Amino acid sequence: MSNNLISIENLSFGYDKNLIHKDINMQFSKGKVSAIMGGSGCGKTTILKLIGGQLAPNSGRVVVEGRVVHEQNRKGIYQLRRKMGMLFQHGALFTDLSVYENVAFPMREHTNLPENIIRDLVLLKLNAVGLRGAHSKMPTELSGGMARRVALARAVALDPDIIMYDEPFAGLDPISMAVICDLIRTLNDALGATSIIVTHDVAETFLFADYIYFVADGVVAAEGSPKKLLASKLPFVRQFIHSEKDGPVPFHIKAPNYRSDLAL
Amino acid sequence: MIRLGAGTRLFFLILIYSADSFKRIHLIIKEIYFIGVLSLVIIIVSAFFVGMVLGLQGYYTLEKYGSSEAIGVLVALSLVRELGPVVTALLFAGRAGTAITAEIGLMKATEQLSAMEMMAVSPVARIIAPRFWAGIISMPLLASIFSMVGVLGGYLIAVPIIGVDDGAFWSQMQANVDFSNDIIDGVIKSVVFGFACTMIALFEGFDAPPTAEGVSHATTRTVVISSLAVLGLDFVLTSFMFV
Questions:
Q1: What is the pLDDT of residue A249?
Q2: Which of A171, A37, A152 is CA-nearest to residue B115?
Q3: Per the CB < 8 Å rule, is A109 touching B112?
Q4: Residue of chain A with shortest Cα separation from B107
Q5: φ, ψ at A211 (rounded to 5°)
Q6: Is the pTM of this model over 0.80?
Q7: B117 in reach of chain A (CB within 8 A)
């Protein structure tokens, strides 16, 4: 277990008394690409926020590099975050800054590097995502896929140990999707980082992830390698992987009796 | 009460992170440009018309009592003590305040503030505090410009158009407008209004629900609360300063 960079131990989290996660356990191994999958609204992104210390658990703990995240003070949290990079669902690029300045932002904030070194590093990162030629553009001039790639370049600007991706494929065309898939794997391996992807895109994730967690009803419903999960007979996993419209996750949400609702 | 507490907490956070902001003075200067310099057109045009109206109304009232030469004093005191700080603050809330709220609210809705937090950069230090100090610095300068342009507007109506004596206009103003009692008190008012308007705009943006409707409501609240705060504070300050 010493190979685990991040551990989620007996974690429960919820707002008021409604628990989104109930006593979940997850381990994320160093150098691996792990995915957290599950239906919309099952609390996948919340797990990333708990790892990043933006939320605190109701019980249990998240341990990153041997440090319990929610027990850190602001300085400790910021020290941990400097080792993390996060790609937000829609990129979250700073709209008042150019592509170049967006990628340079973490470098300017956390280092005293001279401008010529920052320039080289920014162009290096942008080249890695294939957008060196777009460095002078503003975020509003980019397509969704390009914005996501710039955000990825910004997320890895300081060569983080942990890279988190929140729905990296949402709303992308097939070409952009393939590019992002390839970049996630390549960047993870090139940086020797640990990647966590939150997604519900089965086809893409099963191609390159090393380990997958399925979250449903607030618990880890299944886990394992893509190969193991593809062979799984668990009804939820089968329904999710094969996109079946009815199953353990019902087509109809809870509702009063249909006939009485229609006054029949 | 909860929102008041949250606003107070934000204010103390701003104070804590202000040192960081002053280290990156270019951020404050950039905000002074957006909040202050870009408000100049509306301030100057409004001030000119307000000054001209004061000149007209003041002249016809004073003429009844045979003291139309006092028009310069009336225009200057009205502007320096009241209209300069108050109207500037109301225009500031409408132009800069709404822009601040909408910008911060949208940054929140598009996860830009979360992204900053995840990059271990405090949004209070990087986004909120520079705007706060820019508002505090800009407001007295805008109010001073408003009063100055207003006086010129009043002069234009009173002297060249109506024919009040040029010397009487300026000399009466010089004799009766007191620097410490009138001008400094006006500046104090504008600083207080600058604090109130900027703080309300920042808090409403920072506290806005991250949705289109949330940002829209927050922007409306900025104008309404700022306007009421300015008028209420003006009454309190006036009763302490001039009564």
A1: 67
A2: A152
A3: no
A4: A94
A5: -150, 145
A6: yes
A7: yes
